[in-house]
Amino acid sequence: MNQMNIRHKFRNRYGDTQSFEEMENGNVFWHGCRQYERISVDDYGNVVMVDPSGGPYIDKGQDLGLTSAYFKGRVVDHFIMHDHGYEIVCE
């Protein structure tokens, strides 16, 4: 039996729709516009902050419950870049 992945859609202040989807490994995949974003990396080259134009700003140590109550308790460790978004690696 397949378990349905939870998906939450988010509309930022510029009207861009982004979504957060639960992955089988327990992380969260963030689909969205990456055109005008800022990122920050730590000393090891890990992406630890993503701030797309219009939001949402998400960084290391943040509880993803701010984007959806379903993800409450999942805390960001770092991000892995993909062509269509980011895998948010949770602690």
How would you characterize the overall build of this protein?
With 91 residues, this protein is mainly beta. The chain has one domain (7-90). The protein contains no helices and eight strands. The protein has strands at 7-11, 17-22, 28-31, 37-41, 47-52, 58-59, 76-82, 85-90. Strands 1-2-3-8-7 form a five-stranded antiparallel β-sheet, with no helix packed on it. A three-stranded antiparallel β-sheet has the order 4-5-6, with no helix packed on it. 19% of the residues are buried.
Task: Based on the model shown, name its key terms.
91 residues, mainly beta, single chain, five-stranded antiparallel beta sheet, 8 strands, 0% helix, globular, three-stranded antiparallel beta sheet
Average pLDDT level: 88
How are helices and strands ordered from N to C? EEEEEEEE
Radius of gyration (Å): 13 Å
Report the sheet-strand fraction. over 45%
Number of helices: 0
Number of domains: 1
Strand order of the largest sheet: 1-2-3-8-7
Give helix % range: under 10%
Q: Give the overall shape.
A: globular
